Amino acid sequence: MNPDEDGSVGKPVNRETDPGKLVQSFLTPSQSNPKSEDKPQLVAYDRNHGPIQHLDASTHRLTIKSDSSLSSAPNSKYILPQPLSTVLTLSDLSTKFDRVSITCALQCAGNRRHEMQERLGEVSGLDWGDGAAMNAEWTGVRVRDVLVHAGLRPLTPRQTDGDNEDMEHDEEFESQYEGLHVQFACTTQPTQDDDYYGSSVPLFLALDPERECLLATHMNGEALPARHGFPVRAIIPGVIGARSVKWLDSIVVAGEESTNHYQRRDYKILPTEADNSTEKANEGGRDELWDHVPAMIDNPINSVVAVPGRDRDVVSRDGNGCVHVKGYAIPKGKDGPVVKVEISLDKGHTWYEASISDGGDEYYNTRHPGNSNDTGKDKAGRAKFAWALWDVHIPCEPGDDVSIWSKATDRGGNTMSVEQAEGSWNLRGVGFNAVEGRRGIKIV
């Protein structure tokens, strides 16, 4: 598809890049050679449910308000002593608030869906490969600052020390905002399944100082391209890409999730009894399942084998009898950064630790979760929400039908499951994070 095509409601623009190209740079460009005379090549993936919007920054307005559904939520009268009703221009965003940058990976919930479908069974959704992910530096203003400016009174988190107390602090912080949500919307984009595109996250998450949720106006130091949400979009670090709404024009603090189709009837990991038969898909019982399954929020921990890029590829050993394997890994939620990636060519019997590139600094991980005496590099403050690019040379003999497994571990101690190496199935094909990255590889 031509980079300039806008798509439509019936045929939105959805495209991804070969994963081998993705891992060539830590920050994912929107497109390669954008200023040359040659035709630019798209790099960062596109996911849309309707046409790309082309908006005028000088006339664009962002409306912030509260909803009547707040009345029944605990603490709502204290948090919102008066209803919110504010309209901001792009000039307001650039002059009234601190400018913040954060390096953050975005991943479509359906990334790796093709693997799930080929290996486990038919699913419903676009046939994404491994390229529906990107990593960029996003610059803008904090959602928290904008909501406080509009009249929200945030509760003060209790300060704690130590891992267990940090967990208690998180739970207390969440409980204080129980039942409250922030709804994000682009009300000008008609979609395939609704009149507009909208999504939401719990209010505590939007206010969490560890998240730095942004209203972003720039990507990798440049103004957002139209295809990535110009003039302003939400960036919700550590959360599936569907919640980072593009072409943002509405923020609502409410006592319920967004009622939009893509919050209530999509991007959920349905139980296995919700199968792909047409008859069951149309039964009212399916609606009840949608209502009782929570919306996806945090990214699952994930590692993708990008080189070799496809199942059944033929891979040559180098002069040292090694195969070269590369990929990217994404931490779970706010538990980043990724601190270790291990690769196996013999279904988990032998593991090789990969080197990790973190924004140009390549190292072998020496710090592990829970080891307070470790004197190695502490990655706690670096690239917490970014992906990690990994690289390893593994000695091996020639062979057919080789599986390449990759297993990531993040600073929070989350590790991909070896016990269910092929992954697990769900009807929408979302959240796939199988350890088995490539299968049927021939090594020569």
TrEMBL record:
Oxidoreductase recorded as keyword: yes
Domain Oxidoreductase molybdopterin-binding residue range list: 50-262
InterPro entries, per the entry: Ig_E-set (IPR014756), MoCF_OxRdtse_dimer (IPR005066), Mopterin_OxRdtase_euk (IPR008335), OxRdtase_Mopterin-bd_dom (IPR000572), OxRdtase_Mopterin-bd_sf (IPR036374)
Family annotation (Pfam families): Mo-co_dimer, Oxidored_molyb
One GO cellular component term: mitochondrion
Cofactor(s) the protein requires to work: Mo-molybdopterin
Identification of the protein by name: Sulfite oxidase
The Moybdenum cofactor oxidoreductase dimerisation domain, residue ranges: 296-433
Keyword set includes Hydrolase: no
Organism: Cladophialophora psammophila CBS 110553
Keyword annotations from UniProtKB, A to Z: Metal-binding, Molybdenum, Oxidoreductase
UniProt region (Disordered), positions on chain: 1-41
A biological process term (GO) from this entry: sulfur compound metabolic process
Record-level Gene Ontology MF annotations: heme binding; molybdenum ion binding; molybdopterin cofactor binding; sulfite oxidase activity
Biased composition regions of type Polar residues, renumbered to the chain: 25-34
